[in-house]
Amino acid sequence: MSSGPTLVAFPRRRPRKAPASRLERGMSAAAAFQALAEDGLDHLRESATAVVETRGPEAVHQTRVAVRRLRTALRLFRNPLALGERARALSAELRWLAGELGATREWDVFIAGVLRPAAATNRQKRALALLIGDAESLRDRACAGAAATLGSPRAAALFRDLESWLGEGGWRAEGGGGRGGETAERDRPILALAGRLLERRRRRVLKDGRGFKRLSPAERHRLRLKVKALRYAADFFAPLFAAEAAGPCLGALAALQDALGAANDRAAALDLLARLGAETGSPSRRWALGAVEDWLAVRAEDTEATARPAWKAFRARDPFWA
Questions:
Q1: What stretches of 167-210 adopt beta strand conformation (E)?
Q2: CA-CA distance, 208 to 240, in Å (whole number)?
Q3: pLDDT at 139
Q4: Is 100's pLDDT higher than 60?
């Protein structure tokens, strides 16, 4: 395993969003994957460093985004580039890393998207402020654990392995890289593959979304994950197509992801409220818990009213790669 830069290789700074895709029509499939993976690793390393140094909500969010984008690239190109078993192992380790940040991210979304808005519309602000303080304490505890994980030997090994695998003698020498068919596929223009890869994922979304109105929360959660994967893939390949066609399609995907995400966030919020309830016996805090539950119930209908039109708009939108 080759040595590489340590996790804290970047100076302290505000976490940045994922870099725009730099794919070009003339790129081969292999060059496209290399560019996406290298940019993803840079984003991941920088965001993870920000978590260790600042423990801020945006750093946590961007680290999880970077992990998902990297895993999306690995899945997209696994078959076309005949990536080997090492790709699966790296993807599994990336999934582990994202899971270690999951609790912190849930608390961040809950505090910013539920507790603070609920407090802003309620006159009993003191009781809700105490509840927010309780939630922030639990969030900070979770983030301390996440930061420790990011600074652990296991995380350091993952970063070194990713850098080594993307470098000289890495993924290009694995899998089917030595056989004629796979070599030809790697040399094909990415434009010849992009539409096929995107359409495959779009069909999975359409299949899982059948009977949208009747889908259970668990089924909608699985649909949300597929929508998210399609959106990342579409972001990757959008520069290969006309902007006027890609823009509306990406907008419809983003709206659907947000609508499904709102329902998922509500379910997570109810779990976190239950945890807060188990942590305190204070009457004022228990009143605040009830007030937040009422606030969530009022918005549940709004969430459903947004989700159905977002699904219909996505289905009606022609894909930009067609």
A1: none
A2: 27
A3: 97
A4: yes
Structural contact between residues 280 and 134, judged by C-beta atoms closer than 8 angstroms:
yes
Q: 132-184, pLDDT tens digit by residue?
A: 999 999 999 999 999 999 999 999 999 999 999 998 768 988 755 444 445 67
Closest CA to 147 of 8, 5, 43, 3: 8
User: Which has more confidence, 126 or 239?
Assistant: 239
Q: Contact, 55 vs 140, CB < 8 A?
A: yes
3-state secondary structure 207-229: HHCCCHHHCCHHHHHHHHHHHHH
The answer to whether 230 and 274 are in contact (CB under 8 A) is: no
- The domain at 29-316 falls in which architecture? Alpha solenoid (1.40)
* Residue 244 near residue 250, CB atoms below 8 Å: no
Cβ atoms of residues 160 and 4 within 8 Å:
yes
> Span 114-124, mean pLDDT?
90
Is 287 within 8 Å of 124 (Cβ atoms)? Answer: yes
Which whole-number Å values give the CA distances from 279 to 138, 193, 259, 318, in the listed order? 10, 52, 31, 49
Return the biggest CA–CA distance within the chain: 71
Give the tens place of pLDDT for each residue, 280-308. 778 888 899 999 999 998 888 778 889 99
Residue spans of the domains in the chain: they are 29-316
Rounded to whole angstroms, what are the CA distances from 248 to 89, 251, 278, 311, 315?
Answer: 36, 5, 45, 14, 12
CA 282 to centroid of chain Cα atoms: 36
Distance separating alpha carbons of residues 260 and 70, to the nearest angstrom: 22
Phi, psi of 244 (to 5 degrees): -70, -25
How far apart, in whole angstroms, are the C-alpha atoms of residue 314 and residue 258? 12
d(CA 254, CA 252): 5
List alpha helices for 25-124, DSSP H: 29-54, 57-78, 85-110, 116-120
Is residue 308 a contact partner of residue 209, using CB atoms and an 8 Å limit? no
